[in-house]
């Protein structure tokens, strides 16, 4: 009998989660500053990136309710998601619709007051996002983000920075989506 090969190591297994993570301190408004991803949609539409803001609320002391505000076709939309606690500490699970649509989320690094670097993995595909409490971060933080991106095998040619202006603060009741953001 032949043995099955071991499952491939998950790219997220190489990521070390933030040691001292305080969910109450993570709550509040964040701005998406940068993202590294091999997403083909992102590559093809990177010239149309829109300013993106996120509001994080902590539910039951362990679930992150995340509202993402961004423009699509000139209209402000709100995408609501819940990051559920995973078995491993400081790791979360974002469930999408349908089989195999879960996203593993790791808070890789944050100082809670200036920046946060989060890793997202769906299947064997990994992406990294840099959030700031303001729409611009220091060069030192941007350099740290780029180092983390290279450490998981992504490069500058799949790293995108978002505009620091034109944010949505809200969306009307007709422009609210519950579920998974596809990027």
Automatic annotation (TrEMBL):
Chloroplast in keyword set: no
One Pfam match: Lipocalin
GO biological process: complement activation
UniProt subcellular location: Secreted
Keyword Signal among UniProt keywords: yes
Domain of life where this protein originates: Eukaryota
UniProt keyword annotations, A-Z: Disulfide bond, Secreted, Signal
Domain Lipocalin/cytosolic fatty-acid binding: 27-162
Transmembrane segments: none
GO molecular function, one term: complement binding
Residues making up the signal peptide according to the UniProt record: none
GO CC annotation: blood microparticle; extracellular exosome; membrane attack complex
Family: Belongs to the calycin superfamily. Lipocalin family.
Protein name: CO8G protein
The species this protein was found in: Ibidorhyncha struthersii
Lineage, uppermost ranks: Eukaryota, Metazoa, Chordata, Craniata, Vertebrata
């Amino acid at each position: 009998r032949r043995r099955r090969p071991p499952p491939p190591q998950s790219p997220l297994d190489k990521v070390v989660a933030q040691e001292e993570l305080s969910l109450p301190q993570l709550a509040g408004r964040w701005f998406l500053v940068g993202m590294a991803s091999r997403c083909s949609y992102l590559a093809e539409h990177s010239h149309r990136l829109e300013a993106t803001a996120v509001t994080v609320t902590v539910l039951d002391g362990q679930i992150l309710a995340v509202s993402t505000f961004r423009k699509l076709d000139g209209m402000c939309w709100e995408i609501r998601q819940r990051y559920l606690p995973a078995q491993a500490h400081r790791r979360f699970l974002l469930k999408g619709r349908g089989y195999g649509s879960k996203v593993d989320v790791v808070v890789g690094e944050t100082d809670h007051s200036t920046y946060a670097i989060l890793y997202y993995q769906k299947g064997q595909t990994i992406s990294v996002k840099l959030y700031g409490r303001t729409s611009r971060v220091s060069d030192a933080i941007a350099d740290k983000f780029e180092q983390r991106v290279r450490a998981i095998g992504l490069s500058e040619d799949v790293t995108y920075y978002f505009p620091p202006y034109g944010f949505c603060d809200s969306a009307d009741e007709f422009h609210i989506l519950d579920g998974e953001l596809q990027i």
